Q: What sequence folds into this?
């Protein structure tokens, strides 16, 4: 196949944020925006995305699950490896865009920041599993903990992570913001306490920039 005939690699977008930050609210907007621009996109999530990943998701989120800190991180990366092999890499190689609700930044934030698993261990797993694969754009939905708690209150049964105390979620938020500060070229930090219309205008601008790169 000539270079002119080769399929251009797709774009990889991830959505991140503390629980209650509003990621799910904007997924349909992103889906509609990409469709209007005739972008062939795959939407997925972590934990999850594959049959194996969904089983791991059930284990990790169930309130009655008992698991060591290291085992929790290892389970996250086991599901991620399958997710990359089965969904993410094939989509990108075929020139499709891939939008994932959470990826490795969540492990750094929840298991690293929240649980205290050393970042060095997470980094070693990241290098082994991802082999250089990184998102092209990470939308980080950020807002104060009290606002996030108000949004989740009474809306659903809270999972194992959502039930954690406020100091856990503060450590998660801090870890996210540190990663965003360290990689400003990849992260777009969105103030999720603003109106939905304002947030989505920002999202559209970031998607437009990524789309125009060709």
A:
């Amino acid at each position: 196949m000539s270079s002119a005939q080769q399929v251009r690699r797709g774009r990889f977008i991830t959505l991140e944020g503390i629980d209650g930050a509003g990621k799910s609210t904007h997924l349909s907007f992103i889906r509609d925006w990409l469709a209007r621009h005739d972008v062939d996109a795959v939407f997925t999530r972590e934990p999850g995305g594959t049959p194996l990943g969904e089983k791991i998701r059930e284990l990790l989120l169930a309130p009655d699950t008992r698991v060591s800190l290291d085992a929790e991180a290892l389970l996250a990366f086991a599901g991620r490896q399958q997710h990359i092999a089965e969904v993410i890499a094939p989509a990108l190689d075929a020139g499709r865009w891939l939008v994932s609700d959470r990826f490795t930044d969540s492990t750094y934030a929840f298991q690293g920041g929240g649980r205290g698993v050393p970042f060095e261990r997470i980094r070693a797993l990241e290098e082994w599993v991802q082999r250089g694969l990184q998102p092209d754009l990470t939308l980080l939905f950020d807002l104060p903990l009290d606002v996030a708690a108000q949004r989740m209150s009474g809306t659903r049964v809270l999972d194992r992570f959502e039930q954690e105390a406020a100091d856990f979620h503060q450590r998660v938020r801090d870890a996210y913001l540190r990663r965003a500060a360290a990689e400003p070229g990849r992260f777009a930090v969105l103030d999720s306490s603003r109106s939905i219309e304002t947030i989505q205008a920002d999202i559209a601008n970031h998607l437009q920039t990524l789309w125009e790169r060709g």
Q: What stands out?
A: The beta strands are 12-17, 41-45, 97-101, 137-142, 187-191. The chain is about 55% helix and 15% strand. Residues 12-212 form a domain with the Rossmann fold fold (CATH 3.40.50.300).
